[in-house]
Amino acid sequence: MKKKHTMLSEIWRRFKKNKQAVVGLIVLILFVLVAIFAKQIAPYWYDDQDANRAMIAPCMQYPFGTDNLGRDVLSRLIYGSRYSLSIGFLAVGISVLTGGFLGVIAAYYPKLDNIIMRCMDLFMAIPQMLLAMCIVSALGSSLFNLMLAVGLSSTPKFARVVRASVLATREQEFVEAARAIGASNTRIILHHILPNSISALIVQATLAMAGAIISASALSFLGFGIQAPMPEWGAMLSAGRKYIRTQAYLTVIPGLAIMAVVYALNVVGDGLRDCLDPRLKK
Amino acid sequence: MSDKILEVSDLQIRYVTDEETVRAVNGVSFTLERGESIGLVGETGAGKTTTALGIMGLVPDPPGEIVGGSIVFEGQNLLTLPEKQMREIRGGKISMIFQDPMTSLNPVMTVGAQIAEVVLLHNKITKAEARERAKKMLEQVGIPGSRCDDYPHQFSGGMKQRVMIAIALACSPELLIADEPTTALDVTIQAQVLELMRNLQKEYNTSLVLITHDLGVVAKICDKVAVVYAGEIIESGTLKDIYTDKRHPYTIGLFESLPDIENDAATLKVIQGSVPDPSNLPEGCKFNPRCPYATEACRSGDIKPVKISDTHMVRCNRFSDTEV
User: Fold this and answer.
1) Residue A83: closest CA among A199, A197, A234, A188
2) Which residues of chain A neighbour B58 with C-beta distances below 8 Å?
3) How far is A178 from chain B (nearest CA, A)?
4) What does the longest C-alpha to C-alpha distance in chain A come to?
């Protein structure tokens, strides 16, 4: 127990040095807190409609304005963080697990390589959005199925990235040395290969999280997944499109929110990769 | 007391690709007793490392393929052993030190964890005990136990090789295979590492197969020498047999190409030509294209090994009729 603690504090010590990553982490934590305490923070319920106060530009009472149905954009944004963040994390979690697993297996067992990777190519040939739509319509539209669809449809990308970096790692001499001390394949994969190829995966995951939020909102826009009154950021973005010339804030504000999260994820991912890799330690 | 621990006989290993078949090891045989050490000497590409990988059961397949022979270790033929049992032997009873310590350690694991890993794999003990053992091993190879939690990049090359030795000896193996353990190190560190290896080998009564192209290293720590050329042992014997009574033209050539401290010749003698392409080996004696004494008889057929004495063997036609 004690050892684990010192290892974590060591990682934290190195992470702290990267100021940008710390800022990113703070932003991310803020968003997560907002999502958790949405009820306490939001001034209105996300679906409080009032035609009398439709399309009010940002002012003191409505800091981010109101939309065409008179709903407070700030409140919708706050509630929306729940959906957007969980979609981002879970969808990417799904693709990390499936893609990572398939990629490692393909790279480590040359006999399975062709079978797995040609299947992945097959999936890559289908546009990702179309694939996701097929999955949601086959499973029925719900929040979880949406995540599943977004996650599964980007599995091939993860499989490729992981396979490439595992292929490079498995030729390293320390893998042979691990075999020479009698380590089993599972052990070699989990203890020697994965930790050495994880950085590519972390970067890919943080980038994909942004993509996942966007594609989830695109799907919501098309009527799959998140349904109308629910305040998902992407859905808000596309709903505001119609008014972009007169009420630009309806698209800009959810867009900024997505951007802030994506930026935070990227710098945190970068920082994480640097501090998890002892070779880059100064 | 004869206590045979390893008997390699007629080992043949090939690398088969679409374009060519590389005959890396062609009938290597040698025996090793408990606590004894043998040096496999030869040029790059002679098949020394492939032999070692064959003993470990680590010949990459494909393209590698063991086509014949047997490797008997403590009465078991390793070539027919199932993978699971082989895994227990690797690291536990036979361990290997690799050529390049820079790349043979996992860069993202602490050295302590890497030593503890092999201990945990082969002994039923707790993690804390394995860690203690790892610390003890580190101290035994001359590294303070407090550096247990450091990563490989925080160590110098010589220290990394010490760590490799600690890993290899952590389970007190019966047999240690060292594949050019000092090639990647500078000369002063070489001497230290060799000294350490020899002391630990004596202490644990481990048998040693040392692969090297450095005759000086062999002279320092080996009891027996086998000179490997194009996948064959062309001469073998005790240290004394080879160093004072060498017979094979290739062995003689090897020794002549060493600088001598007493004889300050401006140029050293070299063996003409270069090692034959293992995918296209010459007929008969593999050395015949480079041999100054080659005759018609050398260019065809198998060259039989000839016994010069009980311990000394040479594979050369020049000695086939002269019974010594």
Assistant:
1) A234
2) 176, 179-180
3) 9
4) 76
Q: Do B107 and A279 touch (CB under 8 A)?
A: yes
The residue length of chain A stands at 282
Contact flag A180-B91 (C-beta cutoff 8 Å): yes
Are A180 and B90 a contacting pair at CB < 8 A? Answer: yes
Q: Where are the domains of chain B?
A: 4-69+175-195+205-319
What ipTM, to 2 d.p.?
A: 0.81
Q: Please provide the distance, in angstroms rounded to a whole number, between the alpha carbons at the two ends of chain B.
A: 26
From A155, A124, A103, A143, select the one nearest A224 (Cα to Cα): A143
- Domain locations in chain A as residue ranges: 83-254
Rg of chain A (C-alpha set): 22
CA distances from A55 to A50, A76, A222, A279, B279 (A): 10, 14, 24, 54, 81
B6 three-state secondary structure: strand
User: What digits encode the pLDDT tens for the residues B192-213?
Assistant: 888 888 888 888 889 999 998 8
**pTM, rounded to two decimals:** 0.79
Spatial strand order of the sheet with B207-212 comes to: B94-97, B175-179, B207-212, B37-41, B224-229, B232-238, B313-314, B306-307
Q: Which of residues A13 and A34 earns the better pLDDT score?
A: A34
H helix runs in chain B, sequence order? 48-56, 83-89, 101-104, 111-122, 127-140, 157-169, 187-204, 215-221, 239-244, 249-256
A163, A103 Cβ separation under 8 angstroms: yes
Phi, psi of B91 (to 5 degrees): 85, -35
Q: Is the Cβ pair A178, B106 closer than 8 Å?
A: yes
Class of domain A83-254: mainly alpha
Question: Is the domain covering B4-69+175-195+205-319 a CATH 3.40.50.300 domain?
Answer: yes
Q: What angle do CA B257, B258, B260 make, to 5 degrees?
A: 125
What DSSP assignment string belongs to B98-126?
A: -S-HHHHS-TTS-HHHHHHHHHHHHS---
The average pLDDT across A42-54 equals: 81
Q: How far apart are CA B25 and CA B48, in angstroms?
A: 8
Beta bridge partners of B32: B6
Half-sphere exposure of B221 (CA within 13 A, CB side): 30
For the sheet with B4-16, list strands across it: B21-33, B4-16, B64-73, B76-77
| φ and ψ of B274, to 5 deg | -140, 175
